Amino acid sequence: MSVKTITMTAQQIDALEKRLTQAQKRKTPPYARFQYQTSDCVITAYLSGKVVFQGEGADFYAPSHTPATSITMSSFPQAGSDEVGTGDYFGPVVVCACLVTFEDAKILKELQVTDSKAMKDDMIRKIAPRLLKLPHSLLILNNEDYNRVHQQDHMVAIKCKMHNHAYVHLRRKANGLPASIIIDQFVQEKSYYRYLQDQPEIIRGIHFETKAESKYPAVAAASVLARYAFLTTFDTMCKQYDFPFPKGAGKQVDEAILSFVKRYGEEALAKVAKLHFANTKKALSK
Ligand code: MG
Fold this sequence. Notes:
- The termini are far apart.
- A hairpin with a 6-residue loop joins strand 2 (24-25) and strand 3 (32-37).
- The chain contains 10 helices and 10 strands.
- It has helices at residues 10-19, 58-61, 102-110, 121-131, 143-149, 155-173, 189-195, 217-241, 251-264, 278-284, and strands at residues 3-7, 24-25, 32-37, 42-46, 50-54, 78-84, 93-100, 136-141, 180-184, 207-209.
- The chain is elongated and about 80 Å long.
- By secondary structure, it is α+β, with helices and mostly antiparallel strands.
- Helix 4 (121-131) packs across helix 8.
- The strands form 2 sheets. It has a 5-stranded antiparallel beta sheet with strand order 1-5-4-3-2.
- Bound molecules: magnesium ion.
- Magnesium ion is lined by residues 82-83, 184, 213.
């Protein structure tokens, strides 16, 4: 028999009770708020906020994906992944998948870890080293490799494969993956698996949700770790070429392309930039 124990807020317990209109209400046990019996599950909500689901229907009645804003034990451990660098002309594409327990999530909340796009770079540099001890898998696709792969795959396909790779690595590292796996959605679920068709190992059972970085601690942590790796690689690039590469894909990028090519030649551009961006043509056809 399957048993699930979950801590829920008063509102979540109210919402749960509303779902149980077909169930039979039983005598309330000590310290409980209510107990219901369905055809395949006994649900007991305690005054402490703990809710116990017993029986074959436990998975059906117990909530699974609970947003980070209301951290409850139900959604942990969870794995989440996110990518950065896809909007930057210069620098790599980085994908990170990360595993977070309920205890970790409480720490992440204290550290105010959220969507990396909402955090300043200084903050990322300060906080990310503390997240490195979380089980995670980090993939950095440098520009040379990116440009090579891009001759066959477009950006979305590359991202799908990188997310899948990251989870395959994480599964190996952590000896398994939890039931809750969340991707910050950048593509429809169907298309995601279509792009993975020829991959030797495919991780399934993933929950896709937009803006997941601000809702799920594991996605937020992955997004911060990915951003940190991006910044570190970017710093190294700037040092190596003694060149102030700008981020993004705006006007300063077009200007930077010209001065970089002047100094290092057009061939060197493939080592630092995503060549298929419109910036390349725009800058070099002038
Ligand atoms: Mg994202």
